[in-house]
UniProtKB/TrEMBL annotation:
Region (Disordered): 469-506, 623-661
Classification of source organism: Eukaryota, Metazoa, Ecdysozoa, Arthropoda, Hexapoda
Listed Basic residues bias regions: 633-646
Matches recorded under Pfam families: EDRF1_N, TPR_EDRF1
Residue spans of biased composition, Acidic residues class: 479-499
Native organism: Drosophila hydei (Fruit fly)
One Gene Ontology term from the biological process aspect of the record: positive regulation of DNA-templated transcription
Protein name as it appears in the record: Erythroid differentiation-related factor 1
Domain EDRF1 TPR repeats region as annotated: residue spans: 822-1193
Superkingdom classification of source: Eukaryota
InterPro entries assigned: EDRF1_N (IPR056582), EDRF1_TPR (IPR056583)
Biased composition (Low complexity): 623-632
Domain EDRF1 N-terminal residues, every copy: 22-194, 236-497
Signal peptide: none
Amino acid sequence: MEDSNEEIEPCRSIGPHELEAVKSQAIIKLSPVQVPAHFKRLECNTNLNLPPLNWLTTSHSSHGLHQALYQSGGFASFRLGQMFPDCVGEVDVVSDAENIKQLLKLPYSAKSAISMVVHKVGNTLLLDEFDIQKYLLRKSDDDWKWLRSFILDHILAYGDEQQNFCLKERSREALQTKNLLSKFLYHSLKQTSDTDCDANEPTFLTSRPASLPIIGPVLPEPKIEENVPDPKSSHAFNRNVVWTFEDIRMLIGTDMPIFGGPNRPCISLRLRDAAQPINVLTGIDYWLDNLMCNVPEVVMCYHLDGIVQKYEIIKTEDLPYLENSQFSPQVVRNVAQNILAFLKANATKAGHTYWLFKGRNDDVVKLYDLTTLYQNQNKAAEKTEHPQQQRQQEMNPFTVPVGMLLYSVARNMKNTLEHISPKTAGNIRALLDNCIKLLPKEQYPQIVSSSHYILSDLHVPAGIDPKAPKFNESATLFNDDEDEDEDEEEDEDEDENFNDEQPLGFGRDMYYQSAAESGGKANVAVRHICDALRDFKSHAKQSKPAPLIASTVDRCNISLQHISAGLSCLQYFNGNQEEKLKESEMHAKQEEKQRILHEEQNPNMAKPFNAIPLPYEQLQIAQPSAQAQAQQPKKRSIKTKSKRSKSKELTSSSNSNKPEVLTTQKLSAKFNSQNFGSWNVHLKLLLLEKACLTYATLAEHYYEAQVYGSTLRAIELACRCQQVLNKYMANVVSQQSCLLGRAGDCFFQISKHWSAIEQYVQQYEQQDEHSSLINVELTQELEEPDLLTLVPVKNVEQVMLHSCKCYEDALEHAQAAESNELLRRLGNVRNELGLKYMYSAQEEYSQMKRKKEAATGGSAEHSKAELDSAAESVASTAEPLYVKLTINSYDCLRRGIAAFTAVQDNVNLAFLYCNMGRFMRLRAHLTMPNESTIGLDTQKTFYNEAFEYYEKAKDCLDTRKANPELWDLVQWELSTATFTLAKQLQDYSAADKSSLAEASKEVLDLLQKSLRLCDVEHAGARQVLYSFRSGLIHKRIASFHYAQLRSHGVSDASQLPKATLQLCKYHYEKATQILESLKEVRDLLVVQLERISLHEFLSDVSTHAAQKVKQMQAALDICFQCQLIFGHVIDNNSSVNVDDDDEFKAHLTLYESRLQNALKTLIKLLLTTGKDPKQLSALYKRMYMETLTGKHGIGAQQLATATVARSHHLHTLLTRLKTMCGAQLASN
């Protein structure tokens, strides 16, 4: 370590140590000098008054000795905070090491003065020396005017006590001592060779990464002159250290030289006058310097009048116990803890400037809240004519640096943490809120708008899914908050206990007074802070920042507030920005001129022993930029020269920051790589991007809550934000497809909940102030034709068409993965719209038919010529509405089929095919304007197309297992269509004799096919309907066969085809069985009447009297079976309402006549043959007379009688007739 072989003697005048040692640890954050410097031991009798050759050199080989004694740190805490924003909020104090030492020496330096400004940033206090003479007394009247006038007028005393606040000792003796120490340090610096210097380049010892991992877009940096109150002082410390002293963490800057060598790698050097002993203050100074830098030893060099005498080495832990300079480390520890507690208890307001002051020979340390005191005494001045001008003239010089530091710390916390908890988010929010309050947006629009952007991103983080937003609000975080609440309650209990235990101390000695009690003035006695750890109670409530926990709607609304506030700052960019850009351009030109002049005066000559490097340049370095320029919008090629210069400046700044940018989010990365021309456009696009995400999240929330009007408003604004982004950025990740797709969903839901359309329109028209401001900004950026509007109109058809339009526009912007889902939704709306058109066409056609029938019925009042002319005029003027509706229905269904075919959605495709089949059935019954009536052949054509669509639907499903409900629906529709066509052909067929057989066969085939399609096996809602339909089909098949029997025209029953007769009876019996089980009295009565008619026909064509009697007896039996029908009608539990059914009344009358006819025919047949062994003719006569002598006779009065009463009469009549038959059989 030393040139001499002699070992440095250890110091022997060390007293006994205390049992308990203080805890200290130092971690170097950044050191721009070589550590340590090579130590050279000076020979005895070396004259230190002679300056060494390397004295005051500023090269890297000087190890920062040139600034160790002469440079003032200035307002170092602000520079340290800007350099290490990650430490602010984590440490307790940020300051210069000299300020910390000055505070910790308070008990031993009663004659010294202390003047410091204190600022609170988060949980950290910033301490800076405040030289009153330098910054106030020696300044001009305009500089620091507010502090100058306020401190001199209200706090300090003039006259004889002016030296009471002089901080620096500026005597000649003090300057000579500093010069001698400086020469000694340079003498002790061992000179190294050039090769050693080259090998030992300056090393940067740092515990932080070389570049901050920034997550998110690039945001503006505070300027250097805005970071500190005094921009002229730009002192850089040799070491920036995080020092932990007991439980206090401090970020400090120190310039103490550190030397070392092979034997002792780390020591500090001190020069002492051998004629003067070391005092306590000097010992504390040495001890604290070594603790702050983790230096284990100090080497003392003693001199007499500048002549070196000897060296001594002392361990750091021995410094408090040197003879004549002993001090207690425990007292220093108490001072540190009590001073910090005093400051934290009273310096509680972020953004306020506090002044910590102790005059010479004062025994009280005072803390003034200058901001509060100034506000209290100048409330009247704020009401002057020009408050804004007065504010600018008397602005606190510390306000802007504090605001900038708050911004830097918050931005660092936001960008470096991968997961932000609600507690951390609350801290960031508090920092930025205070920053916005401190910085006037007119002067600092970049920082204020960036702060608003960070706050908006804090509430709605980039990268969240709008459909399912997650905000890191887990249960564990709530538990932590509960623990904190418990801690606060414990602290309150301790406060109460403390007040109860020591009430006399505050009242009797008045050694402590809080700022809240005295209106902004706090003080504490120096002797009080030397004792054990004290509790300094603040009477003002110190509320911690609340964790950021809010609902989705609240987060979005707060985010929109900050976005609108950020956009409102953009108007202040143009004036100041243009001037600053011009100044920077002029400055750049001057620097270029100076560089050229310097190169001309100092040509770059080759050095003999240095190789000349060949220039190297990448061959393809210009290609990416050329591609980027080719991708820019055409509008950007038309710019003024000023905007081009701005874009060049921004490009250079963004390129310099590229290594620090961690592009984890696609959209943010796009922002960083574009050349926008100015921060104005850059921040505007960032805010609009955030607004787009916020509105999308808000729209999803409103959609889930079925607030569809507000949903459309949010989507409209989000789409407009996206349009502005697309205008400025060529390769931005577009969200148009998602937004427009959700707008289509919203319109579709409105059409399904049409009763609340008025409410939805009101929701759409409601717009808060912040959204209005954002909308104004968007309308200024977009031209009128480009503005997207999503107004819910009061027309359900138009609303559904808007839905389709939104889906189609979304498909234009969608990728392959998104297009399938959009096509499904589009096909669904097309299907619903097609059905609506279909039902509307059917209703319109029905109304037209009714009007036409009414017009035909009133033709007696109008001539036929007038009606024809009116019809021709209507037909010529406009096409009927039902025609347009029919065409629209077919077009929508066809497009829906195309959409589902494209995505191969078989289930929905089957549903569309089913609806298309239903449309074809409707079309088969519509008469076009150029048609008088629609023929059966045309109907058959449309029905055949319907059958094809139904078969396609079944092919899509393949089996019933795929989708039983849809399969049953298709089956039902197909059965209905088949049965309807069969009825049409059976009832209205007018085929000639040549084609009658084919037509009959076709009808029978259709009826049998429809019967096979009746699914009566599977239980379900349609099982009863299928059963009823099967009964009707059996009836129609039987009627068909009956008609076939009558069409033969034979006179003998034996000539009738037996198969046809058997099928006819079989289907009549099946129809009777089914309809009777379903209690369908109307159709059952018709079937029974047809069966009676069949037997009457068989009786007529029979040649033998016995056969005739047999057939008529069968008809009479069927008449008796009808008693069940009348019983169902009479039954009170029956839901059958037949009172208003004229057809049923006519069938009752027909039944009575058939009953009487059967009895009368049997009487004639029995009397004619003369063979009546059982005397049935007499029975039938009595029965026939019973029908004639009943309560109600047959005639006009009976038709007017209530149907139920007639049924009751018939039921009673049949009962008596059966009784008569039973009595006759018993007698026989």
